Amino acid sequence: MLENGKTVTIDKIEGFSSGAIEFSVESDDPLFAKFKKIKSARLVQFSDQYHKNEYGKYLPMNPVLAKEAITMIINFSYAISHPLYYDTFMNFDRYKKEQAATAGTAINGALNWHGNADDVEGVYDYLTKAQIEQAYNTYIDSRTLNMAMVGGDSAWGGGPLASQWESGYVTGHWKGEMSIWSHEYSHHSGYNHSSNLANSGEGGGQQEMLTDFYKYLISLNDLPFTDPDVLKGYTKTAYLTGTYKKPVFTINPKNTFLLKYKGEGKWN
Ligand SMILES: [Zn+2]
C-alpha cells in the first residue's frame, strides 16, 4: 500500500520460487532509518475486548490516544532495541553499582536481575548470564501486545495486555515518565512483583533503569519521536478526559546514564 492509497502489484518473477524472494521497504528518510533499527518483533495492536468486557476499568482508544500510543510504543521498542540498553541489561550488576554510586549509598536490594521466585531473607533467585540473555530476548520477541487505556484506578499488564492512563499516553511519555509502562510491559513479558524486572522497590529494577535510560535518549534526541508537537495530542481536548499542558522534558543532572555517558552513546 502506498501513501496515496494505491496498492503495489509485483508481476511473477520467472526463475525464483516464491519462498526465495524477500521484499523489504527501503528509504533514506531519517525517521524510517530509525524504524529499521528496531529489533523488537512484537505484534502490537489495540483490542476492544478490555473496555467491552470491563467498561470503566478500561476505556476505548480514540484517534488522538491511539496516535499517542503508537508513537510511544515505537519509541519504547526503539529504546529496548538500543545497543546501550542491551549492554546495560546484560550487565545490570554493573548498573546497580553505578546507580548506588550516583546516589551515594550502598546497593539497594538485589545485586543483579532475579526471577519470579520469592526472595527469602535477602536470598534472590539470580538469573545466570544465559537466563539474562533469555530475558532480554523475551522483551523483544514476537508475542502479541494489546495496548489498552486505563479508566479506573490501576494500570494492568499480563498475558497480551499492557495498559496505562490517558496522562501517560498524552504527556507522560514525552517527558520520559515510562516507569508504569515499563512495569506493565514486564508483567506482559511474564514477570511478577517478586522479580526486579517488575518491582518498583529496591532501586526500582527495570522500572528505574528503563526510565533513566529513556530520559537519556530523549536528551540525546535519539528516539524516533521527541517533539510532542508532531501530534499536539495535549491540545485535542474534545478527545480527552483530563486537561493537559504541553509536556516539557527535563533531565535530572544526576541521571545515571547522563553521568556515565555524558552525551555519548547515540545509536548511529
Ligand atoms: Zn504490577
What gross morphology would you assign? globular
Distance between the termini: 29 Å
Strand content: 5-15%
User: How many distinct helices?
Assistant: 10
Mean pLDDT: 94
Ligand types = zinc ion
Q: How much helix, percentage-wise, in residues?
A: 25-40%
Tell me the number of strands: 5
> So what's the oligomer here?
single chain
Number of domain modules: 1
What profile does the largest beta sheet have? 5 strands, mixed
Task: Give a summary of the structure in a few sentences.
The protein has 268 residues and is an alpha/beta fold. It has 10 helices and 5 strands, in the order αβαβααααβββαααα.
Task: Tell me about this structure.
With 268 residues, the protein is of the alpha/beta class. The protein has one domain. Helices cover 37% and strands 7% of the residues. The protein has 10 helices and 5 strands. The radius of gyration is 20 Å and the shape is globular. The mean pLDDT is 94. The chain binds zinc ion (ZN).
Please describe the topology of this protein.
Layout: H1 30-37, E1 43-46, H2 49-53, E2 58-59, H3 63-81, H4 83-90, H5 92-103, H6 129-139, E3 144-150, E4 157-158, E5 161-164, H7 166-170, H8 179-188, H9 205-220, H10 256-261
Parallel strand pairs: 1-3, 3-5
Antiparallel strand pairs: 2-3, 4-5
Bound molecules: zinc ion.
